Amino acid sequence: MSVVTIVTSLLEVVAAVAPGVLAAITGTGQGTDKEAIEAARERVEALPVRSGDDGAWAADLARRERGDEPTR
Amino acid sequence: MKICLLLLVALMLAACDPSAYRVHSTAVVTVAGAHAVTGAAVDAARDSALDAVEAEHPETGEARTAALRAEAARWTPAGLALDSIRSALGTWLSAVELARAADDGGALLDALLPLAARVLGLWDDLAALLQGLDVDAPRLPEAVRALVGGVL
Q1: Between residues B143 and B68, which one has the greater pLDDT?
Q2: Which of A8, B15, B28, B41 lies 20 to 30 Å (CA to CA) from residue B135?
Q3: ipTM (interface pTM)
Q4: Is-contact B13 A16, C-beta < 8 A?
């Protein structure tokens, strides 16, 4: 079973129960609405940007073209 | 055991009465979680593909650069799609923030549902795109889809 399949299953099970339970698990169930929105904002902004000249993939491609070792 | 679990869930449900703003925030977090997992899978698949090109062209030079760029170009649409969804999630949250600030009883939030639906539509487009790259994207939970069910 792949990681994606497992995550999909978990998301399905949790989200099928109720948004309230999901909120409790994801950390958006506590505090005020404003805090929940801010917590969600942090989750979104933590997602990496991949495309464009400043994206993670451009730097990775440039490194590979130079023949440098990966830093990851 | 199952009865205990159901009782626990019932208790949690009774304790949680999320506002519409919180439901939307949770939906955004859920999609962001799926985005993180899918993005990591895409990164790993792209890395493998580019590693294979490097193995085929161990010496730096024009041939290696051309081959790397050709392979990287295959993944560019996936990166753009992931970044589009990331941006759309931010816009969705901004709309929720505006609706909360307006405090009009949820009328504005209802009017913003098409935006949420657009994000979910982008996810479906991404999943279709990734199929061509042999990468699976998790299906978004029905609870998230139900949130904008009347719009989709």
Answers
A1: B68
A2: B28
A3: 0.81
A4: no
